[in-house]
Amino acid sequence: MKLNGTSSSTPLSGSNGHHHNGSYINGHDLNGAYSSTAESDELVDELGDAHGASSIDTPMRADAFDLDDDLKIDLIEEHFREIMNILGLDLADDSLKGSPRRVAKMYVKEIFRGLNPANKPTSTLFDNKFRYNEMLVEKDITVQTYCEHHFVPIIGKAHVAYISSGKVIGLSKLNRIVEYFCKRPQVQERLTVQIANELKTVLETDDVAVIIDAKHLCVSTRGVHDVNSSTITASYGGKFAEEATKQELLRYIAQPSVSI
Predict the structure, then answer these.
(1) What pLDDT was estimated at residue 52?
(2) pLDDT at site 55
(3) Considering the entire predicted model, what is its pTM?
(4) Contact 160, 192 (CB under 8 A)
């Protein structure tokens, strides 16, 4: 692969099993990650299972968009090929040889495209000419995101509701806002708050509620291997923090969805 017209390669390791490319030396990651010792492995697992998030914002470096998408795909392809090589997979096999490129394109163009604010959906408000002043609820919006601790899927449903402040939004935009924040590595608590905050900004009201019910494959396919549990998170703003309004919303959500 070429960077700025010159050939570039990523050495797997140097002597003593450590990287010598300036990012990993003597068991320490220069970007702040811990070394791969038994103690740090235990800490990594504990932090992942704790399901904490460092902030409401998705952790991003200041230079996150210095590289264009095509170059990101080239670099991820190269690194994922190394991962497959380390695992002992035969990249000469017809079924596997295209996988590094496929994964790289999937990461950048599909499942993590919500990292790029250029892909944020535009939302247009309209006057509430019908003077509809009750809550509007959009149920069962598909949630498909990736756990940022293990990079495996989180799959479920989101329910969003708002009470108009005099403006309304196209229904599909509610789905697109949910989808945008799903398309990045996530923690469910952060995802819930990000969607709620965006809706409050777009709709110009605090009267917004978001509820997410999802299954985490990091729970069902590894670790405890519990295939039955799901995780519910909620954000109630403005009038939805009032018990009567909250209970009304929960009754709507509990009703069977319409089948077509």
Answers:
(1) 58
(2) 79
(3) 0.81
(4) no
Chain segment 125-173, per-residue pLDDT in tens: 999 998 899 999 999 999 999 999 999 999 999 999 999 999 999 999 9
Q: Whole-angstrom Cα distance, residue 48 to residue 218?
A: 9
How far, in Å, CA of 71 to CA of 32, rounded? 24
Question: Is there a contact between 138 and 253 (Cβ–Cβ < 8 Å)?
Answer: no
Active-site annotation, residues: 147-150, 188, 216, 218
The Cα–Cα gap between 19 and 199 comes to 44
Distance between CA atoms of residues 182 and 187, nearest Å: 10
Is residue 237 within 8 Å of 207, Cβ to Cβ?
yes
Q: Within the chain, which residues score under 50 in pLDDT?
A: 1-30, 32-35
Q: What are the angstrom distances between the C-alpha of 4 and each of 8, 45, 67?
A: 9, 38, 11
Strand partners, 211: 159, 234
Is-contact 170 91, C-beta < 8 A? no
Helix then strand then coil, % of the chain, to nearest 5: 40, 20, 40
